[in-house]
Amino acid sequence: MPQIELTQLQYTYPQQSFRLAIHHQVLSDSLIALVGQNGAGKSTIFKLLTGLLTADSGSIKINHQELSDLTPKQRLKLIGITFQNPDDQLFNATAQKEVEWSLSQVMANKQQITLKAKAALAKVGLEQQAGENPYDLSLSERKRLTVATVLAVDPLVYLFDEPLMSLDWYSKQMMTKIFHQLAASGHQIITITHDMDWAAAEFESLSVMANGHFKFSGTPKAFFSNRSLIQEVGLLPPKIMTIAEKLGDSRPYLSVEDYYRQHSK
Ligand SMILES: Nc1ncnc2c1ncn2[C@@H]1O[C@H](COP(=O)(O)OP(=O)(O)O)[C@@H](O)[C@H]1O
Ligand SMILES: [Mg+2]
């Protein structure tokens, strides 16, 4: 299982008061939801992990390899990202070319690139849209296209920045299934999300950030059992917990199924 280790990591944006400071943090679970209020530093961590930003000091190791020692190609094979806004990422004339471009950064065989791109588009349900301009696709489809660009390259670690944002129900189901399949095949998936219902129900592990620090790392059950911590970091529990609490039951529940299981015993 891949492992990310951050040690004494510091980063500040020029002329900004925000400061990311991580003493020591290991991320080793296969399915991690990274949560926290807006401005907590979640996207900044992703940018540091992919080399889009360079830390002021400290170390980032992926599977014991220092990130800064890797060539760009090695890095792309190790860790891939989709941005929050697909328009920051997409620039090719067709969906097919978009995925092919990502592949061309890590391999040379044109025939293989074409085949792999087709397969990745099919995985996200965009095979019919291969010839379309990304800007003619819906936002939900553009989000899925960015996922295809990473699936094609198939890095060991996948970072998704708010992948469910503006997705329709069908696409959300599809993404959730893809994430579980990736985790089952030995990949690590870290996804930033504001959807606590989704994070609680589907993720093995929760990492919580506030003000440029990690405040918690552990199971969703452990986090949502700690009411004062939930409040301190400015998050909301899953809806099912709010309903249960209104009914006088303040125990932690991760989903409707979890509630049902605990009550049907
Ligand atoms: N490119 C940038 N230049 C200056 N400040 C930035 C930039 N990107 C983010 N910030 C600031 O850094 C802080 C953390 O941002 P970010 O990592 O995007 O938070 P999150 O993803 O958790 O919402 C915020 O205060 C934000 O305003
Ligand atoms: Mg963000």
Automatic annotation (TrEMBL):
Pfam families: ABC_tran (PF00005). It comes from Lentilactobacillus fungorum. InterPro entries: AAA+_ATPase, ABC_transporter-like_ATP-bd, ABC_transpr_CbiO/EcfA_su, ECF_ABC_transporter_ATP-bd, P-loop_NTPase. Belongs to the ABC transporter superfamily. Keywords: ATP-binding, Cell membrane, Membrane, Nucleotide-binding, Translocase, Transport. Residues 4-236 form the ABC transporter domain. This is Energy-coupling factor ABC transporter ATP-binding protein. GO terms for molecular function: ATP binding. PROSITE patterns: ABC_TRANSPORTER_2. SMART domains: AAA.
